[in-house]
Design goal:
19% of the residues lie in helices and 38% in strands. The protein is built from 3 helices and 7 strands. The chain has a 4-stranded antiparallel sheet, covered by helices on one side. A 3-stranded antiparallel sheet has the order 5-7-6.
Length: 153
């Protein structure tokens, strides 16, 4: 049987690949063995007369929150915004404070079953308000950092 797998590679690039395998689990193993981190999987119907084997009605956790029982996400995700800077007194500065802070956050969510996935920075354009325009304020860019966690759906 052929499966279409949407995945992310080790550099964070999204990919869609087709895998021939005996079943869904075998297809996921093949993708992982090739360095991909699957985010969804669906069987490929090769012709209008081909059919997908019948499945029991899905529960919400099986479908990743959407109603299509064939295309389901194998993970659910949680994003946690962290401060762009942390403050440390000079006498306590060791150079590893950022790593220690992130480790604390990651371990907190790991205890609840969340697996660390990645950290992203997101730039947000902050526009001057209606009065700010009159006093010479211009737009600025704020950078926020988000830790992405995932766990099986």
């Amino acid at each position: 049987m052929k499966f279409r797998i949407r995945a992310v590679d080790s550099k964070g690039a999204e990919q869609t690949v087709a895998v021939d395998a005996a079943d869904e689990n075998a297809a996921l193993k093949t993708a992982k063995a090739n360095g991909l981190f699957p985010t969804s999987i669906e069987p490929v119907v090769s012709s209008p007369t081909a059919s997908v084997p019948p499945r029991a009605p899905p529960v919400a956790a099986e479908t990743g929150g959407h109603s299509d029982p064939v295309r389901r996400s194998i993970y659910e995700y949680k994003m946690v915004q962290v401060p762009p800077n942390i403050a440390v007194q000079q006498k306590h500065h060791k150079g590893s404070e950022a790593a220690a802070y992130l480790e604390k956050v990651v371990n907190k969510y790991a205890r609840d079953g969340w697996e660390f996935h990645r950290v992203d920075s997101i730039g947000v354009d902050v526009l001057a308000g209606c009065l700010g325009v009159f006093v010479g304020q211009s737009k600025g860019v704020e950078t926020y950092y988000v830790i992405t966690f995932r766990r099986p759906a």
